[in-house]
Amino acid sequence: MANPACLNADQLAFWETNGFLVLPSVFTAAEVSSMRAEADFILELIINSSLCNQRQSRRLDIRKRQTGGMVVRKIQPINDLSLILSRVSEDERLLRPMYELMADQPVLMEEKLNYKQPVQSMDGFRVPLDDDRFPVHNDWAYYLYNGYPDDIISSAITIDDCHTGNGTICVFPGTHHEHIDHNRVRNGLEVPDGTVDLSTGVLLDAPAGSVMLFHAKLVHTSEPNPTSHPRRVMIYSHYPQRANMGIDVRNGPNRLRESPWEWDYRRRKEIGEYVDEFRAEVNA
Ligand SMILES: O=C(O)CCC(=O)C(=O)O
Ligand SMILES: [Fe+2]
Question: Residue 110 CA: which ligand is closest?
């Protein structure tokens, strides 16, 4: 890459010390609105194909809330479903800062769309009675099982404004310096009680279109979104090319499993054999 540096010395020092960096308003309002349209398209595709096939997509993480209704926590993977979003994961405004932080070409290894989006109750889904919280964890606790290096960078692109009131990501600065072994808990992996001082958490406040970069060993969490609007972020994880880990090791099998069901649903919809039951905008 021949471009001039895009991160300044203060930003590089902040990253070294804290293990995260927020770049506000990187994407334009027009780009954000097309990301929202793509998020709606993917949500409708995955929910309607699940309903049509009477088989829940493995891409879909959905829960039944104690407070009523259901919430889509995330859909993963997503790049094979949207040209626009797959292009975002290769955008220079995202790759360039990562290149500077990891001193190598970033290679995409995982992508997901965390919706935290309330939806109406629907039959036909296996939904645990749970919420859209994410445990106190680092992402490397998951990636280490596939032999990935610990200098992966995750990046959350905010599709909606993220703030203290809607379950934004909360990071624990400096925790990236040393990995903490995680315990398996109900909804994923979590650091053992007492290993991280929870009072040091920083809630990341950022308008839609921002980029939150965080080190794979940085401990983070998020509380449920209590509002009636989605709190969507796309989270990409890139590894340094030098690790030479191959392509799509973690999510490839699910793309292959799910794609034929999605195509079958689209064909049945096209010939009028199935009519969509779910619409995203009434829930937004
Ligand atoms: O979307 C969030 O609030 C956090 C998600 C997260 O940490 C993850 O998907 O690994
Ligand atoms: Fe995470």
Answer: 1
